Amino acid sequence: MNPAQLDTQQLLTFLAVAESGSFSGAAARLHVSQPAVSKRIALLEQRLGFSLFDRMGQRVVLTYPGEQLLPAVQDVQRSLDDIATVAAAGGGATGGRLSLALSHYCGLHLLPAALERFSTRYPEVLLDLSFHDSERAIEAVRAGEAALAYATLPPRVADGVQTQAFREETLVPMIARRHHTGSAQDDIRRHGERLPLILPARATSTRAAIDRWLDDCGLMPPAVIEINQLDSIAVLAGTGVGWALLPTTLQREGLVCLECNDCVLPTRRLGRIEPVGRARNPLAEAFMAVVEELDDA
Q1: Over the chain, what is the mean pLDDT?
Q2: CA-based max dimension of the chain
Q3: Which whole-number Å values give the CA distances from 224 to 16, 170, 209, 281, in the listed order?
Q4: 97-130 per-residue burial string, b: 16 or more CB within 10 A, e: under 16
Q5: Which residues pair with 256 in a beta bridge?
Q6: C-beta of residue 127 within 8 angstroms of C-beta of residue 119
Q7: Which residues make beta-bridge pairs with 149?
Q8: Is the dihedral of CA 244, 259, 151, 286 positive or negative?
Q9: Which phi and psi angles does 101 have, rounded to 5°?
Q10: pTM of the predicted model over 0.85
């Protein structure tokens, strides 16, 4: 078939359904009605001559031809983003859309001031923010879904992205005040092996740093509770059901830091993630400049 006969809007709708896993999710992402999404997919399937999705209740899964088509449509999305970026740079535009992928911690604790300053300085720019765990935020940049990400940096950089650290944090053992007697024996050994340890999910950089520290210290908590977000871990640790390793920015009333003299505490690096080999994005560069301004202040 003639590729010129394909409708870009229909292709991007296909991409939205594939990535969200549902027609309703795609409709919310594209800010259109669900019937409009269904119509676009039906027209695209008619033009291509094959089905793109199998319906499974409220969710949909790609057919084999749909799986084969997905990478090509992702390339279309990246090309369109590059066209928009070049057009904005060439015209000296100060408006447009800037897609940022943020880890929950960076977005809520490190970047609020930068987001406020940027949106004040560039009121014509639509900030398209998405919050993920750090690994998914990095993948969003690599896949061309976001122009820039701020997250916990992994030990090894994935292909297609480059990273720049702007902060290193120490993770400190903390426990609920009701467990803390104030005596010299209130250290990590006393509490760490009698109470459950509340940890971030596996396969995250923060979890890997904590696991290495546990091995180095020879600490074996009696049980592990896994929660994805550090803010939620801090809340749960404050109830006293377990202890946690957290950055001091998350210490709250009711949480006490424990002494740890046996081994060096774990650390993690936070920073930005940029694409490699793609057109320069002036809006992303403007946002990076704002973050650096505040970091230097």
Answers
A1: 87
A2: 78
A3: 36, 21, 16, 43
A4: ebbbbbbbbbbeebbeebbeebeeebeebeeeeb
A5: 175
A6: yes
A7: 101, 273
A8: positive
A9: -105, 125
A10: no
Round to whole Å and give the CA distance between 27 and 37.
6
Q: How far apart are CA 74 and CA 80, in angstroms?
A: 10
Mean pLDDT of 270-282: 88
Quick one: tokens of 242?
A: 């377990």
| List of residues 6+ apart from 7 with CB closer than 8 A | 40, 43, 44, 47
Identify which of 156, 162, 248 has the alpha carbon closest to the alpha carbon of residue 208. 156
Q: What pLDDT sits at residue 75?
A: 84
How far out from the chain centre does Cα 226 lie?
Answer: 18
Q: Is the pLDDT of residue 182 over 90?
A: no
Q: Most confidently modeled of 188-192, 234-238, 276-280?
A: 234-238
| Helix ranges restricted to H, 21-105 | 23-30, 34-48, 64-91, 104-105
The CB density around residue 200, as the number of other CB atoms within 10 Å, is: 25
Instruction: Write the DSSP assignment of 177-215 as a string of letters.
Output: GGG---STT-BHHHHHTTSPEEEPPTTSHHHHHHHHHHH
Q: What is the amino acid identity at position 89?
A: A
